[in-house]
Specification:
Radius of gyration of chain A: 37 Å
Strand content of chain A: 5-15%
Number of strands of chain A: 19
Number of helices of chain B: 3
Largest sheet of chain B: 3 strands, antiparallel
Distance between the termini of chain A: 36 Å
Low-confidence stretches of chain B: none
Mean pLDDT of chain A: 94
Shape of chain B: elongated
Strand order of the largest sheet of chain B: 3-4-5
Number of strands of chain B: 5
Largest sheet of chain A: 5 strands, parallel
Strand content of chain B: 35-45%
Radius of gyration of chain B: 13 Å
Number of helices of chain A: 34
Mean pLDDT of chain B: 91
Strand order of the largest sheet of chain A: 3-2-1-4-5
Oligomer: heterodimer
Structural class of chain A: alpha/beta
Low-confidence stretches of chain A: none
Chain lengths: 775, 65
């Protein structure tokens, strides 16, 4: 990921976009944060936020025309938040700590401000605080300009005087009763380094500046520069209306102040000046779940909200934010932030040369299921980002071995002679169709695979139906290993070519996804679509039960498959109670992306959340989803359990095989098919495979949790017994041996028992120690 | 001799294990750890709590470095 990609991804996440109120505010008051503090009752903190953007808080909190209110999302439900009234409450009830007298910065530059209205005062305020020398020329007897024309009940004189006092405190020179609108501007310009003209809408000025057809001074809409170098203009004079909008006048003064500062610093006045004034908000907020909460009415409208009223009114603020993906995804929630931050962390993680890579676990925990992209208003796909990050980590040789090792070895097993096979139907030399059941259905329900193969042959009497066993390679893809993935795909391509480029029939939607995306030349059909089109293979007993469908995450954009499953269930007589998240918004069972390996605790939460989303029994069409749910006690059928076993209860509660049994089931399936259908025998079994083990159930459960397979234990014992390298525990009389057949060192505590071995315990680690017999 | 030393024997050499410095390696990093070891053939003993505790922590730290 380079910086440009990072920036583009960051832009795609809109969580940090200003909410509508702040975006519409010409000076971008952080209304949301201010109201959050008010709702907590901390008026001083709220005032601090308000004053950060507002130079004259007492004045503006009384006269602001509050463009924020028109866009307040609460207003789509009922009355908008009374934002100005809450700002006034903030000013009334909040206190600012005595500001420490800091030595003023000094900058060389002398600026004239012509007109002491709120726009001119803002320029004077901002630039004086930056250390410039300022003189204000005001035609009237007091600072304030147009503010003096406001209703005195609304804006009492003492409020104006109190707020503008800060101008004097900042050391600004003020020339009152000084009308200079008839002098030559060029003459004034020669005495100053820059000038801001804010003489209001009705001034009789006659400055020699370019004007529009109505006689209004022309300014650049972004910089407020006039046609004369170093002269800027803003406020009511541009609008021709008295008191048209104080907050707009402040905004224009502020923006002109930025221009003058840059002009005096001799840097670009125009560079990167985006969204300085009011703009549209890019923030998305789902308000469909926001309940009603009526406007709080003031007890005393003259005073404004009492503090307790203000707290209640502030609580009406929705606190707009997006967080759509985080709300939907347990994984994105788990790490406490949101994609804009996450992509930055991933970028940093990939850029680290020396130091700790804090985001490794984050990157490897994603199921790559694509739900975030589906939900995100900007379709940001964290799965795609994480997959690329994994590939980069592998390339950098920085991928933690522990993350995917076990899954990759499982894949290697499936693509070894133990399981891999490709055969045309007996007596044929090519195939029209080939059933490819994938690794997990074969591991979980090998009997279904044999049955499906037989049924396909029956349903396609005029076609030649072959069979191919193996793992499609998805784990290599998930682990960020494109080389390994490519070589597996190449093998499939070769096998299929040799079989005459048949059409692949796929029960597994992950395989479907792999072939569809990565081997687009191969013709594929989902087994469910096939059944929907050709009819169900078995005589079905129609039932009348209600079930919920868990669509595997790999079917997210395979509506045809989802439809077929619903048709099949309909034919079997099932009523369907759809889960709140189904079809393109379905969630992952935690198997995807190898989340279950990289982050077992998170995977547990993900499964638990999913199985609690529906009361009815689940039906799914992925073997791993089924086994994950049943493993946590959720009654779940694979669709084939319903087709072939009429959905008997035992099928819904039958736990999936453990990791060792998965290997065994695959190997047995191949062996059985080869023997029964092709009349072949398998050869080449390893010496360790004949070692018989006695493992108590409780020990077996521990091995499962520790990802230790029966074959790992067999290897240790074979090695120890052959080389006599083992330890003896004199207390228990048990042997303890260790051996490293792959990247893990396994320790096994055992005793011979006749021809077999009793296993008491086993554990493992990845570190290498001497004597582990590693090859 | 500690309790552990009395318990563990090298079966092949038929002698008790003794504490010794053993080099443990991971991801290109090697460091010495005191473990029980057969003084004759060098077979070592790593207790379960070490393998599942400290060793996992160190593995994780090295993986994230």
């Amino acid at each position: 990921m380079d910086q440009k990609e990072l920036f583009a991804l960051e832009q795609q996440c809109i969580q940090e976009c200003a909410p509508p109120c702040t975006a519409a505010c010409p000076i971008h008051v952080d209304v949301r944060a201010m109201l959050a503090e008010t709702a907590r009752g901390d008026f001083s903190a709220a005032l601090k936020i308000y004053q950060k953007s507002v130079p004259f808080p007492h004045i503006l909190s009384r006269v602001c025309d509050q463009p924020c209110q028109n866009v307040c999302r609460r207003g789509e439900i009922e009355e908008s938040i009374a934002i100005r009234a809450l700002e006034r409450a903030t000013v009334n009830h909040g206190e600012l700590p005595e500001e420490k007298k800091r030595p003023m910065p000094k900058r060389s530059g002398y600026v004239a401000v012509v007109g002491g209205g709120i726009s001119g005062l803002t320029v004077a305020y901002d630039l004086a605080r930056k250390g410039y020398k300022i003189t204000i020329y005001e035609a009237g007897p007091e600072l304030g300009g147009g503010l003096w024309k406001a209703d005195r009940d609304y804006l009492p004189a003492e409020v104006i005087r109190e707020d503008v006092e800060v101008i004097y405190e900042l050391g600004v020179e003020v020339d009152l009763n000084t009308l200079i609108d008839q002098i030559h501007l060029a003459e004034l310009r020669s005495g100053f380094d820059a000038i801001y003209i804010a003489v209001g809408p009705h001034a009789t000025e006659n400055f020699e500046l370019e004007r529009d057809q109505y006689g209004i001074i022309k300014v650049d809409p972004v910089t407020f520069a006039t046609s004369m170098d170093g002269v800027f203009a803003g406020g009511g004079l541009l609008w021709g209306i008295e008191m048209h909008s104080s907050v707009t006048s402040i905004s224009e003064g502020r923006r002109a102040g930025i221009s003058i500062d840059r002009y005096l610093q001799k840097v670009s006045v125009t560079a990167s000046r985006v969204n300085e004034g009011p703009h549209a908000s890019c923030l998305y907020t789902d308000i469909s779940e926001v309940g009603p909460r009526s406007l709080i009415v003031m007890g005393d409208p003259d005073f404004g909200y009492e503090w307790h009223e203000a707290i209640q009114e502030a609580k009406r603020c929705i606190q707009c934010e997006c967080m759509e993906c985080v709300k939907a995804c347990e994984y994105l929630r788990e790490f406490g932030r949101y994609p804009r931050r996450y992509v930055r962390e991933i970028y940093n993680n990939l850029s680290i040369v020396k130091g700790t890579r804090y985001a490794n676990t984050f990157i490897n925990s994603c199921s790559l299921c694509g739900l975030c992209a589906e939900i995100c208003p900007e379709n940001l796909d964290m799965g795609a980002v994480n997959l690329k990050a994994r590939q980069a980590m592998v390339t950098q040789n920085r991928m933690p071995a522990s993350a995917h090792d076990f899954g990759l070895r499982d894949m290697q097993f499936s693509n070894s002679d133990k399981f891999l096979m490709a055969r045309n139907a007996p007596g044929t030399t090519a195939s029209d169709y080939v059933l490819f059941p994938g690794c997990q259905l074969s591991a979980s329900s090998p009997e279904h695979v044999e049955r499906v193969y037989g049924d396909l042959q029956q349903q396609l009497p005029d076609s030649r139906v072959g069979l191919m066993l193996g793992c499609c390679g998805a784990p290599a893809n998930w682990a960020g290993r494109p080389d390994q993935f490519e070589s597996i795909l190449a093998a499939w391509r070769t096998h299929l070519q040799a079989m005459g480029n048949p059409k692949l029939v796929l029960p597994c939607s992950s395989c479907y996804q792999v072939f569809q995306k990565h081997l687009p030349d191969v013709e594929i059909v989902s087994l469910w679509d096939f059944f929907d089109e050709h009819g169900l293979p078995a005589d079905v007993t129609v039932t009348n039960r209600t079930v919920s469908i868990h669509d595997p995450c790999s079917t997210r954009y395979e509506g045809h498959m989802q439809d077929s499953i619903r048709h099949i269930l309909g034919r079997l007589g099932y009523q369907i109670e759809e889960l709140p998240r189904s079809r393109e918004r379905t969630t992952c069972c935690s198997y995807g992306g190898m989340m279950w390996l990289a982050n077992p605790n998170l995977a547990e939460k993900v499964v638990q959340k999913r199985i609690q989303e529906g009361e009815a029994d689940y039906v799914t069409y992925c073997a791993m989803c089924r086994d994950n749910f049943v493993g946590r006690g959720k009654r779940t059928w694979h669709i084939l359990d319903l087709i072939y076993n009429q959905g008997i209860d035992e099928q819904a509660t039958r736990r999936g095989p453990n990791y060792s049994q998965r290997h065994e089931n695959r190997a047995r399936l191949k062996h059985h098919l080869l023997t029964e259908i092709w009349g072949e025998t398998m050869d080449g079994s390893q010496p360790y495979e004949s070692i018989q083990l006695n493992i108590a159930e409780e020990v077996q459960a521990r091995l499962e949790q520790r990802l230790i397979l029966v074959e790992d234990i067999q290897r240790v014992i074979e090695y120890a017994e052959r080389t006599r390298r083992k330890l003896l525990n004199r207390q228990t009389g048990h042997y303890l041996a260790y051996y490293r057949p792959n990247t893990v060192t396994y320790w096994v505590e055992y005793l011979p028992d006749g021809d077999a071995f009793t296993i008491f315990n086993a554990y493992s680690h990845r570190m290498e120690v001497p004597g582990s017999g590693s090859q | 001799m500690s309790e552990q030393e009395q318990i563990w024997m090298c079966d092949n050499c038929n002698i008790p294990l003794q504490p010794d410095k053993v080099d443990v390696a991971y991801m290109g990093n090697a460091f010495p750890v005191e473990l029980l070891k057969c003084p004759n053939c060098g077979l070592v003993f790593i207790p379960e709590d070490l393998a599942l505790g400290k060793m996992v922590d160190v593995e994780k730290q090295l993986e994230d470095k």
